[in-house]
Amino acid sequence: MTAQPSVVTTDVVVVGAGPTGLYGAYYAGFRGLSTVVVDALPQPGGQVMALYPEKQIRDVAALPSIRGRDFVANLVEQADAFHPTYLLGRQATTLTHDDGLPVLTLDDGTVVRAGAVVVTAGIGTPTPRPLETGGEWLGTRLSYFVTDPSRHAGQDVVIVGGGDSALDWADALASIARSVTLVHRRAAFRGHAATLERVRSGNAAIHTDTEILGLIGDLDSGTLQKVALKSKNGDETVIAADHVIAALGFISELGPLREWGLELSGRSIAVDRAGRTNLPRVYAAGDVTDYPGKVKLMSVGFGEVAIAMNHVAVDLDPDLVLFPGHSTDAA
Amino acid sequence: MAYVIGANCIDELDRSCIEVCPVDCIYIGERRSYINPSECIDCGACEVECPVDAVFVDRKARKDPALAEFVEDSVAFFALPLPGQSDALGDPGGFQKLGPVGVDTEFTANYSA
Q: What distance, in Å, lies between the first and last C-alpha atoms of chain A?
């Protein structure tokens, strides 16, 4: 992706690049609107990509059975007809209004000025699940991501977790770090078998059925020295460590949008039948919304976001009619 | 709709489900874990993760009274005050925030296979 300017102006900004948001991007384009799509995760696809990319989806009209990953690729392709701008790996943090129009700020400082916002945030913002111990080292010698592998050059690195991220990072750091130790609480890994095989055949030390007992070092000088491990059968081991990477998955919650002044209904945003929230020019669709009779399914989200985008189109240009016409009429 | 933890979890309490729940809606009692039915988003991540096959989707219980007991028990864990407590747990909004509850429903506490 090329560098984005720090202020982006668009007709509509979609918050959340899950299935509903991606279809919203298509629909906005179909209505002639320029579109920005924001997501905290680095890839589009929301829950489908984060939770079940390899599973078959069977409850979307006209698709008898499709793998999650392919389903998302199709949605991206469909939206690409109208060239939406993706701002991924960035969380939408604040929403204000300027002269009646929404202004969305992202955690990297990007400001999106839009004619309307459509919130398709699903189950909300994913935040890394914290390591049970050693929180005081977070940001110095404990991290939840590998943003720059070269930062770990020559280090003794301990990676905690059993999923794809833990395995990918163990694999990626094998040739960069001085040593890699992979620690997982269970015997079996969840990640891809092929990656596990590469990690197993490499130099990484693997401790399964093992938990992190503590991080040992001099906090004042920011020098981590060792990590204490405890195995299921009670054995305690201390290993050399300069850095710990905890890859324990994500917990999602509504996050910053709780503070946007939206009327909420539990963990959801209350909307009317057009997808309007209580805030001007702010709509919501998909799993993040609630209204009497709501059913949280992708099929429903697709319908909701189509309704919302048609209303957005008319909000932005009152000369337009709500009914969009048929896509079959388009050239 | 929600996933439910059944009899196999009792005295097993592996916690693998808790590690993969994307909304942190699985809570530890004393002998077993409980999925909060109104916080569960029905993703099914816990079902495949459980090493003792204790997790099932509530729809399965419609024709199986042995499972239905645990659907009911899982609702009760949150909706009714637990033994020795004056208020119901309700929807705590995440196990990480709450920590282990340390007590079971009467049904689970007295359960024997």
A: 30
